[in-house]
Amino acid sequence: MSGAVLLRSFEPRDVDAHLAGEDDEIRARFRFPRPSTRADVAAFVERSAAFLAAGAPRRTWAVVEQASGELCGHVESLHLGAGAANISYSLYPRFRGRGLAVPAVRLCLADAEAALPVDRFVIRVEPDNAASIRVAERCGFSPGGEHREGGVRYLEYRLDLLARTGASPRSARSG
Questions:
Q1: How far apart, in whole angstroms, are the C-alpha atoms of residue 141 and residue 112?
Q2: Sign of the CA dihedral running 7, 59, 91, 36
Q3: DSSP letters of 96-137?
Q4: pLDDT tens, 71-109?
Q5: How many CA atoms lie within 13 A of 127 on its CB side?
Q6: Residue 7 near residue 63 (C-beta atoms within 8 A)
Q7: CA 21, 159, 147: angle at the middle one, nearest 5?
Q8: Of 54, 51, 100, 103, which is closest to residue 78 (Cα–Cα)?
Q9: What is the pLDDT averaged over residues 165-171?
Q10: pLDDT for res 174
C-alpha cells in the first residue's frame, strides 16, 4: 500500500478540491470555528507551500491518491522543539476507510525524520477517534499518556526513533 499515495506541496489548483473536502468531521477535529471560505483555503495553500519551500518547522503536504491523481487530504509534521514533532492528518470523506492515511503518515514521518532535528514523534488523538488511533498504531506509535490543549483531552501516541534505531539523539546533534 506504500504506493497508494504521494506527497507534494500544495498548489493553487488544490484550493477548490481542499475546500470541497472539508466536512463537519474535519472542522470538529481541527477546531475550525466556522466552515472555511475559499480565501481561507487559498491562504492555507499559499502558507503551506511557502513553509515547505523555506524549510520551516511546519511541513504540510498535499496527499494525492496515486491511482486517480486526486487530492485526497493533507498530512503535516510540526517541530515542537526538544527533539519532538507532532504529526497530524486528514482525509476527505470519500477517501476515508481506503487505507490511504497509513502510507501518507509513513511518508510524512520519513520526510520529517530527514528534514527536522527530531528523535521522536507524537500523534494526539481525541479518545473517540478510533480510525485515527488505528492509523497511529499501524504506523508504529504506542500509547504514551494524555495531553490537554484548549480544554480538550487527547490521547498521545508516541514513536521513539532512538528506541527503534539505537542512534544518538538527532536533537542534540542538529540543534
A1: 15
A2: negative
A3: TTSS-HHHHHHHHHHHHHHHS--SEEEEEE-TT-HHHHHHHH
A4: 999 999 999 999 999 999 999 999 999 999 999 999 999
A5: 6
A6: yes
A7: 70
A8: 51
A9: 55
A10: 46
Number of domains into which the chain is organized: 1
User: Which helix (H) or strand (E) is 72 found in, with range?
Assistant: strand 71-81
Dist. CA 67–CA 47, nearest whole Å: 27
| Averaged pLDDT of the chain | 92
15: CATH: 3.40.630.30
pLDDT of 33: 86
Q: What is the pTM of this model?
A: 0.90
The identity of residue 109, as a single letter, is: L
SS3 content of the chain, % helix, strand, coil (to 5): 40, 30, 25
Structural domain containing residue 105: 2-174
Q: What percent of the chain has pLDDT over 70?
A: 91
Quote the pLDDT of residue 114.
94
Task: For residue 81, give the 3-state DSSP assignment.
Answer: strand
Edge-first strand listing for the sheet containing 152-160: 5-8, 58-65, 71-81, 84-91, 120-125, 152-160, 142-149
User: Quick one: pLDDT band at residue 162, thresholds 50, 70, 90?
Assistant: confident
